[in-house]
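pls design
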C-alpha cells in the first residue's frame, strides 16, 4: 500500500473517527454494524445549488462509500457516519423534494434523496440504526 493510501485508510478507521468526533461505540453497536449494509443509488444535493448528483452508495461498517456507478471498483469518497444524526430536513432547509433525508454532524450537513418511498425507508432505517448519538426526537417520519 502506498503512503497516501495508508494515510487515507488510517484517517477513516473507527478509532480515529471516534477520537476526533468525541464519541464511542458500544460492543452491541459494533456487532450491529457488522451486519448492517445497504447499497443503491442516492441523489446527493450540491452545496449552494439546486442540482443533485446521482451516485451509487454502499453503506457498511458505519461508513457511506460513494461511487460514480455500481460498476466502479474504487469509491470517489467516503463518509463515516459515527456521531452524525439522521433526520428529515426542516422547513428552513428549503428542500422541496420528496424522500429527502439529512445527515448532520456539527456544521457538516449533507442531503440525500431516494427515488421511492420504499428505498427512502430502507436507507433511513439502516443509517439511523447505525449512527451514534442520534436524537430520537428528530426521527419522526412524515
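designed seq:
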Amino acid at each position: 500500500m502506498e503512503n497516501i493510501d495508508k494515510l487515507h485508510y488510517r484517517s477513516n478507521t473507527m478509532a480515529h473517527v471516534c477520537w476526533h468526533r468525541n464519541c464511542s461505540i458500544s460492543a452491541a453497536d459494533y456487532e450491529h454494524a457488522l451486519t448492517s449494509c445497504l447499497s443503491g443509488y442516492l441523489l446527493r444535493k450540491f452545496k449552494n445549488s439546486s442540482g443533485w448528483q446521482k451516485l451509487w452508495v454502499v453503506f457498511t461498517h458505519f461508513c457511506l462509500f460513494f461511487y460514480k456507478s455500481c460498476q466502479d471498483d474504487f469509491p470517489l469518497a467516503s463518509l463515516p457516519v459515527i456521531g452524525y444524526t439522521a433526520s428529515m430536513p426542516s422547513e428552513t432547509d428549503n428542500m422541496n423534494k420528496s424522500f429527502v433525508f439529512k445527515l448532520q454532524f456539527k456544521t457538516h450537513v449533507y442531503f440525500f434523496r431516494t427515488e421511492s418511498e420504499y428505498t427512502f425507508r430502507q436507507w433511513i432505517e439502516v443509517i439511523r440504526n447505525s449512527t451514534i448519538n442520534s436524537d430520537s426526537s428528530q426521527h419522526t417520519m412524515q
